[in-house]
Design goal:
Elements: E1 4-10, E2 16-22, E3 25-31, E4 45-47, E5 52-54, E6 57-62, H1 81-91, H2 97-113, E7 116-124, H3 131-142, E8 148-154, H4 165-175, E9 179-180, H5 190-206, E10 211-215, H6 226-236, E11 242-246, H7 255-268, E12 271-274, H8 276-282, H9 298-303, E13 308-310, H10 327-337, H11 346-361, E14 376-379, H12 384-390, E15 394-399, E16 402-406, E17 412-416, E18 419-423
Parallel strand pairs: 1-4, 6-7, 7-8, 8-9, 10-11, 11-12, 12-13
Antiparallel strand pairs: 1-2, 2-3, 5-14, 14-15, 15-16, 17-18
Helix pairs in contact: 2-3, 5-6, 6-7
The protein binds fe (ii) ion (FE2).
């Protein structure tokens, strides 16, 4: 099986095509109307009727061990990153694998319904029993039918803030974590932060793992660890597999320093991930008015040749109480907070959601092309702009030719004096 025919779907470049999938791979992409539906079983055909289609979406940054815990044991009232860390520290004292698996599975199913077939999740590797890491590694096999998961060994409380944490990080990697993480801006001193970056670069080389570091996630313009990560990655030649997550302090750097750093990131091939839902509420929370937005310099990074991915970071946890596990929600926030509301920014946003996230995840042969994986998402929208504007329902999600999710769009009727009228919010 693993065959499917999607007819009359509109791609990002505006062309309308039929997509034929055979043996889990895109066999042919032809102008709409050229495929023969009779070659496919009735339950393996979908008439897109002009709807927008993309390759499958990717979530490059989320915390599935904490997802679904918002309000437990308390709500984050200050809106700060540090209060979120404190609340999570209390929650994780009594955490169990089944609790994590139940919450994480629910969020993964939400992601799948929203067209996501790959997720990179961080697992707190400072939780002393490493139940967090164990559970998320177990999650990989439990949801393998719908989503591929990468687990990052992430030292949430810092590597050198407790004498146990360095050993816990190594243990998490040896348990099978796919990616090595760090959080230098949470270490007690600048020097410890620098050493933590050097340490995780050593570990990434020794264990042959990619790196994904929470870095400079603060409004403090003196927080300058991204330069260390980029410099080390450049010297060691590991930049292609290294990601700097957040880099929100870049918002507050002076322009001369930001320019130097963006050049270094480009030279080192280190990627950046911005996480608009969290950064829109966490950053600027110590400010009086005017309040900074606190997002990294997405436009300047992209113009400087740096790959910038787009993540959610949190779904219903102590750092961000909202969230539907939908990359389009994250994109919609970025449109506003990063001043990316120009019509010319529409392809930029979709490039971040698809190709940039795929590059960071390490997907080979990604995209709607013959010979690539037979995976795609159909949106209840005529085009890329309206899909983003309405955060359109995903009417069909396929993964290697198999059905992952379907959504029946809501029927909306307005009752006028002249009678009821169906509307769809499309222009
Ligand atoms: Fe994060």
């Amino acid at each position: 099986m693993s065959e499917y025919l999607v007819t009359s779907a509109t791609t990002l470049d505006g062309s309308t095509v039929d997509i034929e999938i055979a043996d889990g791979v895109i066999d042919r992409i032809v102008p709409a109307g050229e495929s023969d539906p009779e070659q496919f079983p009735a339950d393996r055909r979908y008439e897109a009727d002009g709807r927008f289609v993309t390759p499958p979406l990717i979530e490059p940054h989320v915390h599935l061990d904490a997802t679904g815990t918002a309000g437990e044991p308390s709500w984050n009232t200050s809106g700060t990153l540090s209060e979120g860390i404190d609340i999570w520290a209390t929650y994780k004292r009594d955490i169990t694998a089944e609790d994590i698996l139940e919450r994480a599975t629910r969020t993964v199913e939400w992601y799948a319904a929203n067209g996501v077939t790959r997720i990179r999740t961080h697992a707190d590797a400072t939780e002393p029993s490493l139940t967090t890491v164990e559970a998320l590694l177990e999650l990989q096999s439990r949801v393998a039918d719908i989503v591929d998961i990468q687990v990052v060994a992430f030292p949430q409380d810092g590597v050198f803030t407790d004498e146990e944490n360095e050993d816990l990080l190594r243990e998490a990697i040896e348990m099978g974590a796919d990616v090595v993480g760090a959080i230098p801006h949470v270490e007690h001193t600048r020097e410890d932060g620098v050493t933590s970056v050097e340490l995780v670069c050593d570990l990434a080389e020794r264990y042959d793992r990619p790196l994904d570091v929470h870095i400079d996630e603060t409004d403090d313009p003196q927080s300058r660890f991204t330069e260390v990560l980029a410099s080390e990655s450049l010297k060691r030649g590991i930049g292609e597999r290294t990601t700097a997550s957040h880099t929100t302090a870049m918002h507050s750097y002076n322009n001369a320093y930001a320019d130097k750093l963006i050049r270094l990131l480009d030279e080192s091939n280190v990627s950046v991930i911005t996480n608009p839902p969290d950064n829109s509420v966490l950053q600027g929370s110590y400010d009086d008015y005017p309040r900074r937005r606190g997002h990294t310099r997405v436009d300047e990074l992209r113009a400087g040749g740096v790959t910038v991915g787009l993540g959610h970071d949190s779904v219903l946890d102590p750092w961000y109480h909202y969230g539907m596990a939908d990359p389009l929600d994250a994109a919609f926030i970025l449109v506003h907070y990063a001043h990316m509301a120009g019509r010319n920014n529409v392809p930029d946003i979709w490039e971040m959601l698809t190709a940039a996230n795929a590059e960071i995840f390490g997907v080979d042969e990604y995209g709607l092309q013959e010979g690539h994986e037979g995976s795609l998402v159909v949106f209840d929208s005529p085009d890329a702009f309206n899909a983003l504007r309405t955060r359109a329902p995903r009417t069909l999600v396929l993964r290697e030719g198999d059905l992952v999710a379907q959504t029946e769009p809501a029927e909306v009727k307005v009752h006028r004096e002249a009678g009821q009228k169906a509307i769809d919010f499309h222009r």
